[in-house]
Every structure is written in C-alpha cells, then in structure tokens.
Amino acid sequence: MTYQTDVTIPDPAQGRELYRAHARSWLAANLPEHMRSDSLAYRAPTLEECTLWERAMHRAGLAGMTWPTEYGGFGLTLREHLAVNKEIGALMMPESVGSVGKELAGPIIMAVGTEAQKAEFLPRILRLEDYWCQGFSEPDAGSDLARLRTKAELEGETWRINGQKIWTSGAMKATYCLLLARTGTVADKHKGLVMFAVPMNSPGITVRPIKSIDGKESFAEVFFNNVEVADSLRLGAPDEGWSAAIRVLSIERATNRMYRPWRFEAELRSLLRACKSDAVLARRLDDSDVQRRVGEIVGQIDGLKGLIEASVEHLESGAPIGARGSLSKFYWSECHQAFAGFAYDLLAQVGPQSSPLARRAKAHFTTGYLFARAETIYAGVSEVQLDIIAQRILNLAKDK
Q1: Do 211 and 264 reside in the same domain of the chain?
Q2: What would the pLDDT profile of 232-290 be if each residue is shown by its tens digit?
Q3: What is the pLDDT of residue 379?
Q4: Cβ of 39: how many Cβ atoms within 10 Å?
Q5: Which residues lie across from 180 on neighbouring strands?
Q6: Rounded mean pLDDT of 2-16?
Q7: How far, in Å, CA of 281 to CA of 294, rounded?
Q8: N or C end of the chain, less CB within 10 A?
C-alpha cells in the first residue's frame, strides 16, 4: 500500500480554508476504498494497514497539527486542527489505532514531562512507532479515580508497582501504558497519585483480553505483579498524578476527535443513501415518525458542531476548558447512542434479498450499535458528567 509522498503542506498564513482544502484533496486521493466503512469494497483493515495510513496522514500534515515542530508536530492552532477534523469526519475511515498516544499520553507528556521525556516519546507517538494504552480504570475505580488501589512504592531510583487495571483499550498491542498509581492509601483519595510511562514488556505485566459485546477483543485486564519502573519514567511530580489525570480527561472530553459531529453527519448520509437504494427501506423513509427522527438527528448534529466550534473559540482565547469538556462528552455520547439505535431499528428488515448497499449499511450500523452501548460509559459515565455540569456550569447546590 503506497500513499502520495510528494506532499506540499500549505502555509496556514495563506488561509485556513486552503489548509482544509489540502486535507480534503489529499484524503480523497489517498484513502483506500476498502478502508471506507460505507463502501461495498470495505473490509476490516489490519493493524499494519491502519499504521501505514496514519503515518501517511502525519507526513501530509494531517496529524499532530498543534504539536510543537521540535517534537514532530506542525506548530499550528486548534483552528487548523478543527479544519482538518471536519474533513476527516466527512469520510467514514477507521478510528485511529494510535489515539491513546496522540490524544492522551502526548498532551500529558507535553504538560508535565521532562525535556528528555518529550524528546524521546513525542516524535515516536506521531510516527506511530509506539502504541500506548491508558491504565486508569480499575474493577472498583472507574469514573471515580480517587478510589484506585494500584500501588507504587519507591525503592531507591526504582518504583515497584502492584495492582490491576481493567477496560484497558489496546493493551494487547501497546508499547507503553500511561499508568496512574497510588503512593499512599485509598483514604488519601486524590492525594498521592503518580503517573508513569510503563513499558508493556516489563517483567510482571500480564494482559488478559476481554471479549466485548461486538465479539472483538479490544479491551483487556492488565495485572502488575512487582513490576519495576525506573523513576525516569515517572511523568510529573509524585503527587501530581491527580491533576495530570484531570487534565487528560478534560482534553479527552473536549478537544479529541473533534470530527465526531461531521462523522455523525457522514453516517446519517450513508444511512439515508443505503435506504434509498432499497425499495422496502425507501418506503420507510416516507414514514412521518422516521422523518421526524431524522430531523431531530440533524438538529443534534448542528448542536454538537456548535459546541465544538465554541470550545475552540474558548480555548483559543486562552481560557481553560474546565467543565465544558463534560458538556461535549455527555451530549455527543447520548445523541450518538440514540442515533445508533435508530439506525439499527431502521435496518432491521435488511436481508439477503436487500440491496448490496443496504446490507453493507446493516453490517456497519450493527457494529456501531453494539459499540455505542459503551459511549455513555467510557471517558466518564453520563451520570458523572451531569453532576459536573450541574455543579460547575449551572452552579447548582449539592444534595445534602
């Protein structure tokens, strides 16, 4: 698989729309048809294919836009990042296989890492030479990280780590784990939390895949049994883990995958196109309830676009993201989960005699429906996000 290499990346000073046009033309010319989930030629791409694709996107200036140039980025603003994300969202391409590194580990290393850590890790993340997983959630500490129990004890210049993580995405392929551990006791809650970049080939690490409802093994349990980690792999101060984790989650909820409403829109276009290709489904589109629901979805997409645009304006003004990330996370996950259910129901009648496009759509939206069950859970469950919104945005009083 080869991609266009003689790429001239436009100067953003010439206009943001020029950069967006560059993204549109490069993606259209290079995205393989079999990697478009709305194409009849689609097949699930391999890890190697996804890696090569993302490396090509980086060389074309479509990844790492806001990262400093000295670490392999392009030194641009969130506005260019958003412009490119609109074009990424418009095509139903695979999700990034390096998302944890690019969206979580990278920003944290830039925020609290040493210069040596930045120079070592950041370029490799963008070149997809390392894969990362996120070791935050535990069996008794999911959305409430203050309850985590994984223990880190300092012995000279080495930390000894014992504990268990769960729902760790991509742990089977990961080179490093962005690990949050505790130096004190659970009673310390937010205090005494420390973050590490732990090599996944360290002795004492056991990874056990978890099969999810869609039949895939994208999650895992990870066990740490007397795992030794050099102090040079600690990210930030020993008591800085909580603030770093909150920074990670704020970034994750507000600025990562800004393409979501445009991908949501592309999925809706794909769904309607598939229905129009099939006589039975086309008649269903004339149903007033179906038309009403489509209208609601269009409105929700526009609302989400507005939230994303406002977040960029807010951040570009120099203001912290704060609780706004929770608002975006709650809104997109609830709306997309409901849309996935609508698409699944609409395509329920698709069978062997249906049009090829309808059968492709059913396969895609069935997988999407199953995966969407987790969207209101990962990166912060909806109930917790509502509590944050109530207290920090609406300034409502806590129940006594």
Answers
A1: no
A2: 999 998 888 888 777 666 665 666 788 999 999 999 999 999 999 999 999 999 999 99
A3: 75
A4: 17
A5: 195
A6: 74
A7: 14
A8: C
Angle at 152 between CA 205 and CA 237, to 5 degrees: 120
Prediction pTM value: 0.90
Name the more confident of 20 and 141: 20
Q: Helices 324-346 and 356-372 sit at what angle, rounded to 10 degrees?
A: 140
Alpha-carbon gap, residue 192 to 159, rounded angstroms = 14
127 is a domain residue: no
Q: Is residue 329 part of a domain?
A: yes
Contact 84, 21 (CB under 8 A): no
What pLDDT does 46 receive? 95
Q: How far apart are CA 215 and CA 111, in angstroms?
A: 37
In percent, the amount of the chain with pLDDT more than 90 equals 65
Are residue 389 and residue 266 in the same domain, yes or no? yes
User: What is the extent of the structural domain holding 215?
Assistant: 132-239
Rounded CA gap, 372 and 160, in Å?
37
| Amino acid 115: pLDDT | 96
Q: How far apart (Å, rounded) are the C-alpha atoms in residues 121 and 112?
A: 13
Contact 255, 321 (CB under 8 A): yes
Q: Is the CB of residue 158 less than 8 Å from the CB of residue 231?
A: yes
Helix, strand and coil percent figures for the chain, each rounded to 5: 50, 15, 35
The helix (run of H) or strand (run of E) holding residue 270 is helix 260-276
In 3D space, the residue among 239, 247, 256 whose CA is nearest the CA of residue 109 turns out to be 247
State how far Cα 179 lies from the chain centre.
17
